[in-house]
Structures are given as C-alpha cells and as structure tokens.
Amino acid sequence: MTVICVREQCQYDRDGVCNNECLMNPIYIKLAKIAYDTVLQTMQEGEQTHGDEWLTKSIDYHKEHALQHSVLNHFGDVSENHTNNGMTRLAMIKYLEANHDNN
Q1: DSSP label at 80?
Q2: pLDDT for res 58
Q3: Is a pLDDT exceeding 80 seen at residue 92?
Q4: What global pTM score does this model have?
Q5: Distance CA 51, CA 14 (A)
Q6: From CA 86, how far away is CA 66, in angstroms rounded?
Q7: Confidence class of residue 100 from pLDDT cuts 50, 70 and 90?
Q8: From CA 20, how far away is CA 18, in angstroms rounded?
Q9: Where would you tag: which of 35, 42, 76, 80 has the fewest CB atoms within 10 A of its CB?
C-alpha cells in the first residue's frame, strides 16, 4: 500500500512513500475516505428533500441532531441510517465552525 502524505512540501520515493517524518498512517487515509464518501453521499441524498437549509441552522441545532442520531443508533433504531446522518451533522458543525461566527 502506498502511504500518502498530506503536506505539499513532502518528497516521495519511487514507491510513492513520503521520505519526511510526517508519514500518514494508511488506516487514517482509509478512515478519511470512508468519512468523505459517507458525508458526500448523505449530503447529496439530503439535498433532494432539504436543499441547503442546513446552512441556516445554528451549530447548537446540528449538535442536538447529531446527539439524537447517536442515541437512536445506540438503542437500535433502524428508521434511518443514524451513523451516516450523525457523521454528516458533525461535518456540518465543523464546516460552520470554520466558516461562521455563530457558535
């Protein structure tokens, strides 16, 4: 498996492995890809019925919904994919924290 480094200044050997001390653990890359794919798919599905209304909601609103998804998932509710929806709510929070001053 090729190890990918996320730093632009890295130099790679012929196998694509970063030669600097900032080697990225391959598991982190797999995890990030799963998170990316999950959030992207969930956002695309949600856009069909909700549009971009999530951008108008407060961070606390998204925190509450992320918590609800976690609790419902914990207790075995299968009415929707709570793991995917909770993960997406958390990504929304990170986006809003990075782009807005509405903590």
Answers
A1: S
A2: 96
A3: yes
A4: 0.75
A5: 45
A6: 5
A7: confident
A8: 6
A9: 76
Mean pLDDT, residues 45-56: 95
> DSSP state, 51?
T
CA-wise closest residue to 39 among 93, 92, 100, 99: 92
- For residue 84, the tally of other CB atoms under 10 A from its CB is 18
**Nearest to 50, CA basis, from 89, 78, 79, 76:** 89
Rounded CA-CA distance 56/7 in Å is: 33
What single-letter amino acid sits at 69?
Answer: H
Domain ranges of the chain: 26-99
Q: State the DSSP string of 21-49.
A: S-PPPHHHHHHHHHHHHHHHHHHHHHHHH
